Amino acid sequence: MIKPVLISGIQPSGKLHLGNYLGALKNFVELQNSGKYRCFFFIADLHSLTESYTPKEKKAQIEDLMRSYLAAGLSPAKATLFAQSSIPAHSELAWILNTITPMGELRRMTQFKEKSGEGAESANVGLFDYPVLMAADVLLYDTAAVPVGDDQDQHLELARTLARKFNSRFGKTFIEPKALHTNVPRLMSLDDPQKKMSKSRPAGCLFLDDAPAEIRAKLGRATTDSGREIKYDEKSKPGISNLLLIHSSLSGVSISSLEKKYAGKGYADFKRDVAEVVVKALALYQAAKKKISPTKACAAFAKGGNASAKIAEKKMVEVKKKVGLI
Ligand code: LTN
Q: At residue 120, does pLDDT exceed 90?
């Protein structure tokens, strides 16, 4: 039986945090290990050039993300791992798709509107064109499933629209990909549980590379709520609910069992325990990452790059024939 293709990527644009891990990376590893898909996981380095960076920073971010993929459990023996920029077909297909993409579709994209803000006219064209490159990433591999957060649904819908449009104009070439939503926890910032955990709020953000002392300090300072009960209630107890979610996601103990376990106990004890759960979970990842050198990581991604390039180039020949370039 041939397995359906699954693809996803993460941008190398700064340190990964626990929200990224539970929202994407951990899920990638589970999908890889399920054996149900032919998996491709890549580093969306071209996409990440749409945000400000220095070349030195960028190179370090790419190497760091490669090592993080491997440390989290993605394996070149089970999935094809590669860097987007190592395969020219991604940019090449993006260009051809550009020529069938209406400006209006891209102008409507919520992420573009949010990221460009008031300054849409000075925003770089890459930011505007971001969803078309993403469509190319997916369509090149005859992808069936794309695990993404719901913030990417609109982009994936565009990929489907472009596949349909290309197919109807030039003949069946692409498969329409589907978003794969799994139940991922949405972590909130430790210092302000009304806001999403994000690297732009470092005090409330648990980074995967944080040392145990930092983790304990951040959790010690985490905002709790009025009252003293340890109970899941996002509305009246957003801080405690977020900590319960973090504990449960990493320990595997259900939230209701945790509520029972901590009945009658104080916030301070609970926060200390959450810190230990986080320290323990990250220790495994951090130890694995230490053992993976940038050279070793780059070699694994180069191998995957060769394998994906073959598939992508074959697809490009088909595309070029269809549109009359060759
Ligand atoms: N836009 C995605 C990253 C991304 C991606 C993709 C995900 C780029 N290309 C193709 C899935 C498939 C993000 O920022 N989460």
A: no
Give tens-digit pLDDT for 245-276: 999 999 999 999 999 999 999 999 999 999 99
Determine the atom of ligand 1 nearest the C-alpha atom of 137: 10
Distance 208 CA to ligand 1 centre (A): 20
CB 166 within 8 A of CB 132: no
- Residue 8 contacts residue 145 (beta carbons within 8 Å): no
Q: What is the pLDDT of residues 53-104, one digit of tens each?
A: 999 999 999 999 999 999 999 999 999 999 999 999 999 999 999 999 999 9
Q: What is the pLDDT of residue 119?
A: 87
Ranges for all domains in the chain classified under CATH 1.10.240.10 = 202-289
In the chain, CATH 3.40.50.620 covers 5-185+294-323
Ligand 1 binding pocket mutation candidate from 8, 129, 130, 156 (most atoms within 8 A of CB):
8
Contact, 62 vs 83, CB < 8 A?
yes
Ligand 1 binding site (Cβ under 6 Å of any ligand atom) = 7-9, 11, 44, 47, 134, 137-138, 146, 148, 152
Q: 5-185+294-323: which CATH topology? A: Rossmann fold (3.40.50)
- How does DSSP assign 151-211, residue by residue? GGHHHHHHHHHHHHHHHHHH-S-----EEE-------B-SS-TTSB--TTSGGG--BTT--
Q: ∠ at Cα 181 (159, 96), nearest 5°?
A: 10
pLDDT at 183: 86
Query: Region 15-40: what's the mean pLDDT?
Result: 97
Q: What is the pLDDT of residues 141-186, one digit of tens each?
A: 999 999 999 899 999 999 999 999 999 999 999 999 999 998 889 9
Residue 138 and residue 131 in contact, taking contact as beta carbons nearer than 8 Å: no
Q: Which residues are catalytic?
A: 115, 196, 199
For a mutational test of ligand 1's pocket, the pick from 10, 20, 110, 127, i.e. the residue with the most ligand atoms closer than 8 A to its C-beta, is: 10
Q: Which CATH class is domain 202-289?
A: mainly alpha
